[in-house]
């Protein structure tokens, strides 16, 4: 596996692959790899001729009071994991390569970037959309892979790619979980033992809501209350528990027909965690994302 620092070198390496009509898969990441990242890499490796992983802790998607400085960084460990997964190129640029002096462009996706995470983390999705647009332009992949854990990010990126006619297919891969149900996240390393035990509350809340829907509950407020009760049982106070259209993120009142995204965000000790599930009633049963 080659480690590449500059866009020039990246393009020089990928040009012959493209000319030979070999397919390129990209997994954009901020490093601190876990099994969720590995599943995206493995997908990119099996489905493409060339698998590229970008590793860049993007400063523009962190708010002023967020954890940019503390964000876990261990490039040597990440490189080993990517190489073991069969990745061909690890693109790990320095900040100046992505945001050179005088950088003055922001990509803002309206609509789906506004509620939920957008409301709680102002500017976050501008940073995500800007860096993802840049990474897609730098790498020029046929397919780019993202995780369903960041369900809203996935919608923002789909919208971005459609609106700007970026010729890449976006594939969203299932959430990977710890044995007790906690969604894999680079931020889980912030959790001490006590908070780690409480963190399972997010998954428990989603499961309780799913079970209520499977038992016939269709009222969004009632389902939300069930999820909140499960969180409270672990002394977890949510930032939000939202039932919204899975494609639009518009609030819904009843779970009927269209797929519904149940999304939860909560601070557990030092870690801000998010999780979600898609509730579908069209085949009579809810589906786990
Ligand atoms: O999901 C992430 O790790 C980041 O938001 C992404 C997509 C790599 C952009 O920095």
Order of helices and strands: EHEHEHEHHHEHEHHHEEE
What is the third-level CATH name, the topology of the largest domain? Rossmann fold
Distance between the termini: 32 Å
Strand order of the main beta sheet, please?
Answer: 1-4-3-2-5-6
The CATH superfamily name of the largest domain is HUPs
Structure keywords:
single chain, 289 residues, 3-stranded antiparallel β-sheet, 6-stranded parallel β-sheet, disordered C terminus, alpha/beta, 37% helix, Rossmann fold, 9 strands, Pantoate--beta-alanine Ligase, Chain: A,domain 2, binds pantoate, 19% strand
Q: How would you characterize the overall build of this protein?
A:
Helix 6 packs across helix 7 (151-163) and helix 9 (201-214) runs antiparallel to helix 10 (220-233). The chain has two domains: 2-173, 3-Layer(aba) Sandwich (Rossmann fold); 186-281, Pantoate--beta-alanine Ligase, Chain: A,domain 2, CATH 3.30.1300.10. 37% of the residues lie in helices and 19% in strands. It has helices spanning 7-19, 35-47, 75-84, 95-98, 117-120, 124-139, 151-163, 193-199, 201-214, 220-233, and strands spanning 2-4, 24-29, 50-55, 89-91, 143-147, 169-173, 238-245, 260-268, 271-279. The model is unreliable at 284-289 (pLDDT under 50). The two termini are 32 Å apart. The longest helix has 16 residues, at 124-139. The strands form two sheets. A six-stranded parallel β-sheet has the order 1-4-3-2-5-6, with helices on both faces. With 289 residues, it is of the alpha/beta class. Pantoate binds at residues 28-30, 58, 61, 128, 131-132, 150, 153.
């Amino acid at each position: 596996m080659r480690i590449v620092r500059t866009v020039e070198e990246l393009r020089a390496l990928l040009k012959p692959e493209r000319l030979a009509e070999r397919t390129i898969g990209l997994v954009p990441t901020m490093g601190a790899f876990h099994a969720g990242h590995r599943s995206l890499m493995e997908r990119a490796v099996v489905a493409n001729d060339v698998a590229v992983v970008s590793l860049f802790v993007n400063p523009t998607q962190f708010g002023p009071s967020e954890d940019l400085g503390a964000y876990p960084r261990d490039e040597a460990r990440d490189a080993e994991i990517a190489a073991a997964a069969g990745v061909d190129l690890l693109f790990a640029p320095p900040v100046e390569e992505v945001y050179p002096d005088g950088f003055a462009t922001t990509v803002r996706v309206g609509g789906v970037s506004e509620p939920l995470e957008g409301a709680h983390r102002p500017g976050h999705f501008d940073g995500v959309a800007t860096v993802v647009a840049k990474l897609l332009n730098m790498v020029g992949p046929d397919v780019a892979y993202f995780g369903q854990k960041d369900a809203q990010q996935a919608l923002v990126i789909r919208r971005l790619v459609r609106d700007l006619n970026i010729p890449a297919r976006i594939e969203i891969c299932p959430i990977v979980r710890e044995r007790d149900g906690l969604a894999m996240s680079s931020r889980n390393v912030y959790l001490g033992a006590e908070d780690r035990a409480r963190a399972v509350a997010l998954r428990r809340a989603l499961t309780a809501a799913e079970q209520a829907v499977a038992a016939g509950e269709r009222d969004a407020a009632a389902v939300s209350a069930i999820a909140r009760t499960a969180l409270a049982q672990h002394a977890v106070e949510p930032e939000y528990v939202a039932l919204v259209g899975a494609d639009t993120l518009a609030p819904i009142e009843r779970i009927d027909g269209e797929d519904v995204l149940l999304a939860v965000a909560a601070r557990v000790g030092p870690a801000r965690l998010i999780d979600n599930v898609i509730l579908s009633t069209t085949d009579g049963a809810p589906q786990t994302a």
